[in-house]
Amino acid sequence: MKFGTYVFQPEKAEGFDFHVFRVKPETGIRLTPAPDVRSNIAVFADNTAVRNHPDWISQSPLGPAKIGNANYNIYWDVVCATQPEHRTEQLDYIEDVSRHSPGVWLNSQYFADHGHCTCPRCNELWRKSGLGWLEWRRKEVTGFIAQVRERVRNELVMCIQPDLVCSYERYGVDFDDFARYADAFNVVMFSKSYATPWYWEMLSRGFKKLLKKPFYVSLYVFGPGDNPRDVPTASELLTVSVRCARAGVDGILYLADGASQLRDFQKAAVSQKELRERLKAYGDQPVQEVLDRVTSWEKIVQ
Ligand SMILES: [Zn+2]
Fold it and tell me: Rounded to the nearest whole angstrom, what is the distance from the C-alpha of residue 270 to the centroid of ligand 1?
């Protein structure tokens, strides 16, 4: 099992196997990729693109995919997934980033949510396709991923929402289609609390059953601007890591603003001596790999 970091700052915390740097987060800012760090790109969630082109925003009967539209779990402005100029520009950008880093991890590479997009172009494309609405959306998303695959010669990872059942209806995402083009999946399981680890373990087991490629899960440690009182505790993170590990995940990533927050987490995890001892009974090899990793952090955080 691999352990990675998922960070907003181009910093490599010690004690992990690999790093994923958010070179283009949903704000739309673009940072410089690094040759030994994988690059994460938010494709259609892009505040900058929408600010520059307000008419590109994804539309639905419940309103646009705009920050503040409480009908949806949308925290950014999302571009319509068939917007041709954005697609072309993103394909060029993704190819360029892949040449300057060991791999590309995409998120928001699909429709904004259920009911999207009903802009005039999407309606026309759908009608011309002769397909049902949901199948047309799937074809648009999968077709885009196929184009991405032609541009990315190294690792290509699909980040997906932790929705086992409705990703097709909500996002146009078909897991088997993605598996044909992707090297791996990353299920983002971000939460400010992991107080009920059973649910995350259940999701991991479900994805283990469904996904036909290796998959990582990403856990939330400390986001940009977070108050330390509002983030998951080290004991929650340790427990949920062990629970996901025993459900068969191929790796765990830890999301943080930068290396210092990860180091704080490592230090707090190491100090959980009683819990680490108790978790030894939670399972065999994968569980021990998580606990061994924490043990290896002892000399880093001293
Ligand atoms: Zn549209």
Answer: 49
CA of 86 to the centre of ligand 1 (A): 12
Residue-wise pLDDT for 77-117, tens only, equals 999 999 999 999 999 999 999 999 999 999 999 999 999 99
For residue 58, count CB atoms less than 10 angstroms from its CB and return exposed for 0-12, middle for 13-18, buried for 19 or more: buried
125 CA to centre of ligand 1 in angstroms: 9
Would you place residue 302 in the very low, low, confident or very high pLDDT band (cuts 50, 70, 90)? confident
Q: How sure is the predictor about 208, in pLDDT bands with cuts at 50, 70 and 90?
A: very high
CA of 212 from ligand 1 middle (Å) equals 30
Q: Taking the model in full, what pTM does it have? A: 0.97
CA of 124 to the centre of ligand 1 (A): 9
